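Quick one:
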Amino acid sequence: MSDIEQADRPDRFSVVHRMVGGVRVVTVQGEIDHDVKNVLGKALLSEDSAAQPSRIVVDLSGVTFMDSSGINVFVTAHQAVSATEGWLRIAAAQKPVLHVLRLVGIDALITCHPTIEQALNP
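Output:
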């Protein structure tokens, strides 16, 4: 398990990822904005393409705010894993975050599930 926090504001954003049956589960807490987009991107995709998982579930249950920076990170991650015949799924987004995802149409590109368990099922 790996913990990543934004150094200058660790109380505002954190990411923890773990492997569950060959799927990287990335649990995000706090606010996703321009200040944390690089941290989130690195948590989703390893810089070593050989170590990059092809299946990722992002748990957004602890995310209280997300702007277009988060949308861009998710689209980039989706494109990267889709190129390897993998997938990216979003799980447990709170209503305000889910509203943003639906408003920009990300839910048509990336499957959004109400729970992590549902996102992990094929």
